[in-house]
What does this fold into?
Amino acid sequence: MANGPSLSTVTRSLSLLDVLHANQFEGKSFDPEILEETEENFYRGAPPEWLNFHISEQAELDGTGSPFIKRDGYAKLEKQIHKLRKHPGISTVKLFHQPGCGGTTLAMKVLWDFRKTLRSAVLTGSTSDITKVAEEVVHLFTAGSQGDQKTVLLLVNGVQVLEDLQVSIMRTIANQKIVTRMPVVVLLSCIREDADLKSDDVFLQEVLSDSEKNHFNDKKTELNRRYGDKCKRFHGFNIMQSNFSEAYIQEACSVFKTIKETGIQEKTLLASILSLLNAYVPDSHLLESQCLDVFKHANYSHRDISLEDISLEDMLDDFSHLIITIQQDGSEKRVCMAHPLIAQCCTELMAEAGVTRSDTAKHLLTCLCRDKVPRSLAAFVKYMLTKRRLKEKGREENPIHPTEMKEEIDSFSRLILHIQTKEDDSQCVSLLEMATNMFDQNPFFPQALARFHCIVLRDYDQAEMWAKEAKQRDLQNSFVADTLGQVHKNRLKNLRRPAQPGGILALALKAIRAFEDEERLAEDEVGTKVKRNVHDSRFFNSRGMFGFLQVCNLVYDLLVSQNPTWRGVLTKKVSLGSALPSLGDHSLLRFNGLINRLRDAVEKKCAFLDGYLTYSKPDIKEDDPEYISRQTSACYRKYVGDSTSSHLKEKGADLIQKLKLKQAGTTTGVLSCLDRECTESDLKEITTLWEEICLHKDPDTAMVNNIFAHIMLRNMGAPESDCKHLTAFKQEMYLTDKSEAHMLALLLHWPTGNEDACILDLSAMIKRTQDLYKQAYAKHFRSRYLRPLFFLGKGQELNRIVHRTVLEGSARQGDWETMQDWSDEKIFQDPWVKERLLKVRGEIREYRLFATVDGKEIEVVANLRNSLWRKRKVSFYLGFTIKGPVAFAIQTETADTKELLSEMDSSKPCGLLKFGACGDEMDARNLTKLKPEVNRVDEVQTFSLQSDAGNYECSVSGLRWVCKEEVSFKYKFLSWEEHMRSPVCKDYMPAGPLMDITVTSGQIEEVHLPHRVCIDQTSTFSGQFAVLHVVPCCDVVEEVAKVTSSHIKFLQPTFPPRGVMIRKMAGIPFYYDVLIYKTNKEFLTLDVYVVPRDSALQQEVEEKPKSSGSILILNPGPDKSMQMGEHVSLTTDQADAIIQPSARELRYESIFFEVLIRNTNSDFTLWLQSGKDTLWTCTIHKGDYQNQSAEH
It folds into this structure.
């Protein structure tokens, strides 16, 4: 392969990534003043630079400084990244941190320390073109040549782009036909968060551990020695060293306590503006020129000293120690407060001195936003005044799907809320009005102002005026348009009771027009480039449709509560004209057009939202808020379902209306029955009604709905009933131009191995289903996650079709935390689920998945695309979304044949077995045994092996492998203890060592993990084995395809840590060894261990006797297996012997007996017994315990 360009050449072409080179700064000399300034700025509170880590590293090497402080999260991050380096494709590690806790510093330190083993980089450029970002990441991974691959460690601030970036990187890899030999990228996501998170996350808080306190105290001593009094200005360091002491922060900010006496001076004004900005906007700053503008605006130039003759630091005077100046890459200097906590404290002290938050915000606007405002400052002001967060403590507004309707989002920005609570409502209004006037093209300030008038002041006239102003500023933005509809809706909701029907309908008309306009704009946004600073066009705005239904709910409740006649009018059972005498107001006739179209519009919008919520959800991890479906259903029942309209005269119309009463008048309605928790009697009626409709109207659609209803009924557990149309549908294929009918055909015709060959062209059917999905749903679903509706199960005909809710219900009974999240696929580890579903086999190649069906390959989509990185044979469960089949829980196939047992003597652990890449029989005694090289680091032993092509066995662990080329690898033993507490392992116990294997060169074709269960051809235990795979996010249990008498076989293995387990049950026979040690005690004392024939456990046992100088007495191991759980006792023929304890229960761990014999000078015998059965016997000769020494 030709050499590609050098890495330095590649990195120069990357405009969006800041690449950290392996030899960064090596051999480069620096001006000592630059080094000192860089270090001082960092300790004062400036963000770290790569040079800071180099300075610290050199000082440590020179012996002039202590190591760079790493907060406690470092070790966990490092461990996670090391683990993820063993997994193909793309992985993510998340570091959550509170502002000012050293999160960014920790993340950069991790990148610095990995720079020689990974290609470390920071995503610094714009993410608006995510494809360009992905291309640069892949270019860095390959360094311009497929022969120069190295995993990228990429630091990404926030989580907004993670999902899209992963998809785009995989697409780029596939398009460029790159064969990856290692993980492509580990994404280190650094996220500001101020709430406790899951235990798996790394989270830095405003509190130090004891070890962190010690490190900071040591560093403080060093800095005091080097910098003396300068250390008093090192606020960034000192705040952390003081464990974020409130007293220290108050003392540092004490200059603000003099404001009442000195008044507001120019320096005070600038410091207050910077404090407010930094307190409410992360990573905000002012340019040095903007800071000088504050002094100019305050007429500082009237003094004798010119602005050009004095530095900004001198102008700030006694405030200067609280403020830092940063300059990078020759750009203009940026100015900010030394620490977010200082900014917050200063803001509070200013308020106590009478300079309120609203005063300071207005000063910012008047001083810095009068003329042309730099883009960065405009963004800071927008964030400060309009950015809303989730009410739930510590969670930011959903950055992945900002358009989804959330109940817990704060009503206003944090600053506006603080002004409201600490000052008054009028200050919020005047501040937002000022921003609205100064930023006269921006729609978000008048939008926030409209919301404040509506929600807080309930001044709906003002709210309407500002909502219209916001809309006028961005005529194409549906999300801005939503505010006007919400204002009208809230006005209607809060009408004084009783309200006149005319007033109700007039307001409703205004709200409906606003929401319909929003809906039109949302439709127009499809396929167009809406403004990126508002909402991403990947998300369809359904608020207009839902707002329409909310208004209809209000209209119905308000009118019907006054006069029941309105029920018939709104449902079109009677006309408005005929009802006017009863209603008593003939002027209402002007609303006839509105009333006439409400019922049909409600039915249409409910049908859309029913499909929207049934077929999809915001993302793979979470569902839509429950109130959307609840209010949608309520509106449907009021207008459509609960009354029969007199105008329905066509054949079968009465049957359709009965179905609408059950909310099952459409295919989507039938498919959502189990989500809505229909009763069995409801479903039986729905099934019967659709069967009757087949005789009257649209028989093809009715047939599909009738079959789906039968499927739903069976999934509810109802007794089987005859589905009369099933055979006709399967034979005649009555396929409408609906993806639902094609999905049904796929469900019914997908071969399971127990049926005749498939008569369908499955690939063509899948393609047609996908095309119909694009026509009907893709426009609105866009990036939403498509729910699996059904799964392919075991059984025949309709009985094999399993609805998603059936699996979720089973998993909930198993105490699963939540079934909203399909990203971890934990539901498929549930034993009941595994028993219910059918395994489909296939193959992954070129990042695509193919199911093997009747000897043909059918491409299917994977639920988790990260499963597609490595070419391999796989098995999976097949789910069906409205777009077609999807593979879930993809697992590597370990063998193509059924379970095989070796033909051998059951009393021996080794014998003749199927072994070798070609499946030829090989005598295990002819394997080449290799002794590993052993290295010990911090009490952890690593075993390294190297071999040419052939069949081998490790002499220590019994691990076997087959390779066709030279291969090198290493392994170490891991403890089972932590993993046995995992829910997926609760039904299993260890059956062999847990091993962490790393291949360092070459490729292993087969690996055979040792197990210690005694099995032969008559054993019933062979089907009870499983293998634990330890992956970063969870423990995964995999079924075993091939068991031999002593090993579990894997073809083309990957190497996450793994070990053999067996299902817990009585009477499982295990192989054990007996280890006897003579101690150094006064009388003859033997420590006797009964240990499973597991190298890892025996290694643990051997450590303690060795350290105490005990001597191993060699003995033949037990010939017989022993049953787990049975009680065994150790006895001897020495009359005066004391053996403690008298009996022990056998477990998959070592058990211990102590044998004390005061007077002996002859041979004696030990027996291990279970009841009357002797399991092991051994004669201890006089020479075994008298002549041995520690050197033996």
Q: What stands out?
A: The radius of gyration is 37 Å.
